[in-house]
Amino acid sequence: MFGRLFDLFKRTKVRVQGVDKLPEGQSRRITIGDPLANAGVDIILARVDGQIHAVDNRCPHAGGFIQDGPLLEGKYLTCPLHQYHFDPKTGAPINAACRKARVYKCRVEGSDVEIAI
Question: What separation in angstroms does the CA of 107 have from each of 37, 79, 91?
């Protein structure tokens, strides 16, 4: 019985190659699965302080898309809809009164990253 219960909390791990090419203070959007068929997710990978962080591409405020590319001040993601900023390490909003952005656990292995979705 407990085995089935624990299976509900398991996450799928997805390997993304080539994250070693992502420069410091930059982010890149990746698509895992097929979001149009409601069977996937768009994720923003960001490199801050030498670490790779994975954040859901959807802004928790109004469902806008967090933009990829250069990070604000080299460390914050931006939703261009209302200019809200998020810390990719924690998903915490910086200048907004909204929920945290969803972050995914990730682990770098060489030039790849493994993301638990």
Answer: 27, 25, 17
Domain regions of the chain by residue span: 12-116
> Mind listing the pLDDT tens digit of every residue in the chain (117 residues)?
445 544 445 578 899 999 999 999 999 999 988 766 777 889 999 999 999 999 999 999 887 899 999 999 999 999 998 899 999 999 999 987 889 999 999 999 999 999 998
Q: Which CATH superfamily is domain 12-116 in?
A: Rieske [2Fe-2S] iron-sulphur domain (2.102.10.10)
Tell me the C-alpha distance between 56 and 43, whole Å.
5
H helices of 22-105, in order, are: none
